[in-house]
Sequence to fold (531 residues):
Amino acid sequence: MVVRSPLPDVEIPSVSVHEYLFGGITDDELDRVVVVDGVSGAETTFRSLLAQIDAVAGAVAARGLGVGDVVALHAPNVPAYVTVFHGLLHAGVTVTTVNALASAPEITKQLVDSGARLMITVSPLLAASEAGAKGAGLAEEQMVVLDGGAEVAPGYTSLADLLAEPHPAPDVSFDPATHLAVLPYSSGTTGRPKGVMLTHTNLVANVAQSLAIGVGPDDVVPCVLPFFHIYGMTVLLNLALRTRARLVTLPRFDLAQYLGVIQEHRATFLFVAPPIALALAKHPLVDSYDVSSVRAVLSGAAPFDEKLAQAVRDRLGGVRVLQGYGMTEMSPVSHCIPIDRTDIPSGSVGLLVANMEARIVDPATGAEIEQPAEGVSAPGELLCRGPNVMVGYLRNPEATADTLEPDGFMHTGDIVTVDADGVFQVVDRLKELIKYKGYQVPPAELEALLLSHPKIADVAVIGLPDEEAGEIPKAFVVPAPGESLTEDEVIAFVAEQVSPYKKVRAVEFIEAVPKSASGKILRKDLRATPA
Fold:
């Protein structure tokens, strides 16, 4: 059976992201502060932001970039990110967002796969960006260093240069339902990273659907979850812009700095991943700051149980603790606990958002699992359908067909239950993806890398539960005949070639990797192995 959201449908206009977020802005709103640099304190009003967005769009268009072109954005959460991201979208460009922690080889792969024609970065990330861009065949004039200048990254165009160019924003035309706004990279339910094709309508729809979360114009939102990740992009950046909330950017998570921003700026709505929630619940430093302004905390990106939710609630003085669920492929939100639904347990992922439908199927038989008239359903794989679901994976029809059914329902790879009131609970995971502090770590990618080591005959990688990180990657290694290998050697080999969050953090040497008759790694057998 099809389970429909109990929330009333919302209107999803057929407009660009720029038009949806800024088209109805009033004169009074133009003078509101919209972005604050959490490090320097510098403030940007909507009026100034929109002028900068227009200038970036004009500068990009003057370089011959527009509809049909892809530009890579590789930066942490700084105010310039807001300007450039939306300047690119306003120019009709498709933005492929690059993880700030990505290594040069990872950047090269993404640039080549996405077909990016321009790379935009910041000086602290320039070494990896430069090497990655070079590997993809981009020339120096195809790179922009936002904070560059005569003393920092000389020779590169800077944001100041773009803003100074006298080019008006272009008048572009495209179908928002088919034109790609962004190309974030995700491993989906399994496998290596793939370009997720999200249209302007996908992003517009998910902001409209996420309004139920309850962010309003009086909210102050610290932005430490990265904008390059779809959670930060939609639920922090775009939702806050649409609701006229105030964003306070932080380029990385430092608990003292984060708490200082909450205290100084009287932050009201915190969007976190479970590791941040854990720190808020348990770290003694929290007691040194005034966090009384906080009214709500929403956790996403990884599992978050009722026990941790209660600990956060108790520590922060009884604030509302919410949870959401989604995937990059759904722009990302498919479920959330609305701010006004105090009857929904914080350990659940709440209700389907507006305009969404779901099916639950037995993963072994494919049989439909019914939503019960009372109580809780049997567990099954969650499939979702809605206006926020991706077009597909870039140039990967096989992976697209494996994920999207012909009727539009998308496989999530997660096992859920649903109760009579439409409240969903994630209970297990079909997919093999490891979630380290909310970041996706695909086992297949690490396995392929480890198999390139001459002393390794076979390998399997799984996620081990970890209180702080959620999960950590553990490698089960079969040494090549006659070879000896240490745990430190394996860990160092991987660390030299991947982003920090993808590092293998535990190693066990085994005689053989358990596999099925078809050759599939039996990860459940490895999970049963004592740690």
